[in-house]
Amino acid sequence: MKLLIAEDDLTSRSILSAVTSKCGYQPVLAEDGEIAWNIMQQESHPRLLLLDWEMPKLDGAELCQRIRQQESENPPYIILLTTRNESSDIVAGLEAGANDYIVKPFDNTELQARLRVGERMLSLQTERLEAVENKVALQRQLQQAQKMEAIGQLTGGIAHDFNNILASIMGYTELLKDKAIIVGDSKMQYYLEQIYISSERARDLVAKMLAFSRESKTGGQALSLLPVLEDSLTMLGSIMTPSIELHTDFEVDLPMVLSNPLQIHQLVMNLCINARDAMHDNGRIDIGLKLVQLNGELCDSCHDQIDGEYVELSVKDTGTGIESQILERIFEPFFTTKSLGKSTGMGLSLVHGILHELGGHILVESSPDTGTLFRLLFVISEQPLETHDSQ
Questions:
Q1: Residue 373: CB partners within 8 Å, gap ≥ 6?
Q2: What is the C-alpha to C-alpha distance for residues 336 and 342, in angstroms, rounded to an integer?
Q3: Where are the alpha helices (DSSP H) in the chain?
Q4: Are residues 79 and 166 in the same domain?
Q5: Cα 88 to chain center, whole Å?
Q6: Is 187 found in the same domain as 239?
Q7: CA distances from 350 to 211, 236, 318 (A)
Q8: How far, in Å, CA of 54 to CA of 39, rounded?
Q9: For FRET with 269, which of 13, 146, 287, 377 sits at 20 to 30 Å CA-CA?
């Protein structure tokens, strides 16, 4: 641990440095209060301080007051060194902001003991702050989980009810189409065909709503992502303009993951369509596939902690990026920044539903300068590695 020693007397400073070094501390030396103050302005300043009261330019008590005035959430532990031993002096030093007080001359064992006390107090302080931060993070995760669960239940309920209505519309439309064919009314046939096509689009939207709400349990199977991903990329040609560059970087011999081909197609198409729109049909999309090890990162859609090994499918664009206040809402169903009629707001909700139904997670990085990167993390199947012929 770093230890700031502010002492104007060279001999005393050298002795203190030698004694504390033997105790395992890393002394940072200052010959007056002004130098000590400048050291404390550094980002990685010491948190354990030994300050002589009587120093030129800025004495120990004044230095204490300055430090406490800029007190942070994790303040330093300060021990004042002085020849003053009156009760009023002790009170003045403590009121100036010192945590402890040692009267010169002092025994080295006493100094070591007081430093150990300071070290323990700093350790407890750090643990308390970490506990508070963990509590805040857990509360955020719980709030997000409750929010997404509530939205999922609402979405699932709407989807089920809408499915019943839709089934009636499509069924009666089929009956009318048959009748129109019999009577030879071509115009009526055309109108009914358009109703049926619109109903099919509505049915696809309901499927996405159910996928988000996790009511539709399609399940996962042991699957190699690479060949399925290559098939998906073939399908992308019909929706990408020539001005968009598509680059891939795939690792081979990756473990099998839990998913199914239809889900992979849905994920890739949704992310690439969003990337295309974010770049206004002009830019570059990078698609990657690799094995990753994660430790302690938080999922950007469910906010659970991610630990362990996953197969990562990444989609990166060179678009305008996503603003931070919008980034927190992108996985909510029906939330979209696109103009009315160009998006249902279910694309990323579908990505959320599929990945979390399979036990996976999502990480998102975005900025106006670099575009947006989606990292889809797939749970590894217990089946063994697949090998590929290099030829």
A1: 314, 315, 316, 364, 365, 366
A2: 9
A3: 10-22, 33-40, 60-69, 87-96, 108-183, 186-213, 225-236, 261-278, 324-327, 347-357
A4: no
A5: 52
A6: no
A7: 6, 18, 23
A8: 18
A9: 146
Domain identity same for 357 and 227: yes
Is 353 found in the same domain as 323? yes
| Residue finishing a domain among 192, 213, 234 | 213
Give the residue-averaged pLDDT of 153-159. 66
287: pLDDT strictly greater than 90 = yes
Number of domains in the chain: 3
Q: How far apart are CA 295 and CA 289, in angstroms?
A: 19
Most confident of 166-170, 231-235, 245-249, 274-278: 245-249
Name, in order, each residue with C-beta under 8 angstroms of 116's C-beta and a sequence gap of 6 or more.
Answer: none
pLDDT reported for residue 251: 92
> Domain residues for 60?
2-106
**Tokens standing for residue 133:** 């931060």
Helix (H, G, I), strand (E, B) or coil at 127: helix
**Domain identity same for 80 and 165:** no
pLDDT confidence of residue 217: 46
**Tokens 């938080």, residue located:** 298
Q: Tokens for 373, please give them.
A: 């990167």
Please check whether residue 114 lies inside any domain of the structure: no
* Structure token pair of residue 322: 């996503």
